[in-house]
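User: I'm preparing a small set of examples for a lab meeting where we compare how different chains pack in three dimensions. I only have the primary sequence for this one, and I'd like the structure in token form so I can line it up with the others. Please keep the answer compact; I'll paste it straight into my notes.
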Amino acid sequence: MSLTTGTTTEKAAPPPPAGLDEGAPATSPALSSPLTRSTPAPSPRIPSRAVPVRPVLRRTASLLATGATRSAAIVALLLLWETAPRLGLVDRTFLPPFSEVLVAWWELAADGRLADNTYASLVRSFSGFGLAVAVAVPLGLLIGWYRPVADLLGPLLEVFRNTAALALLPVFVLLLGIGETSKISIVVYACTWPILLNTISAVRTVDPTLLKLATSMDLSAPRLFQKVILPSAVPVMFTGIRLAGAGSILVLVAAEMIGAKAGLGYLINASQYNFAIPQMYAGIITISAIGVTFNQLLVVLERRLSSWRVSAA
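Assistant: Understood. Below is the structure token output for the 313-residue chain.
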């Protein structure tokens, strides 16, 4: 309303743009162009993370230095083995150079004899080792935890634990024959005692504080074994398992030298009789390689099962 005339006035609307009908609905400039509707807003650029070079180089150098330190003694032994026969320090007939042993090993691998004998030994060794673990671990847990079982079986265990496995080899051969049964049985006997004794020691040396805490939480006997006793016993138990793994191969080689038709022990014994000395050393090297590999596999398994432990380093 104007103050002078007293009449009501309205603000004039702007005229519509040219080319549009008056009855058409008005649209905003942002929606009028299809180009503006389809063009997305630019996304912010994410800066790429550069991999630090110095820590990687430092870690690589540390691994190389550790590997060189661990392999230095083995390399020195192989160099001494290669040079001592060539320089006449030892009789070349009985200790050929390492290069000749490698040639003999390759010949055995090429004609399939090494693979056949290794397979026969591994089947016997792993069968006996597996049976020993299946028997010794539960028995060790029972003896270590229940005092009446320990009092009952203790004197019997003391008698047999002090009897060498190889001393009983003729007894196993007489009772079970010279076939596979006697060889696997002697491996079971040799592997049982390290696993059994270390399992008993592992159960008896569980931290009493952990047992008191578990008892205060009213854990049942199965849950107590699962949550407290077994995890605490794994490190000491695996010490016995690793000793048994090494003993399974050594005892088997001695057993295969009596009445066997295949196996690494048979290969070594036959090579000695035929005076094929490089082949004999090739069989010995194969046994050592199998023992080292088997031990490393057990170490990896032990670390996996005892990942809760805090390293002293």
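A couple of notes for your slides: The mean pLDDT is 78. The chain is about 70% helix and 0% strand.

User: Perfect, thanks.
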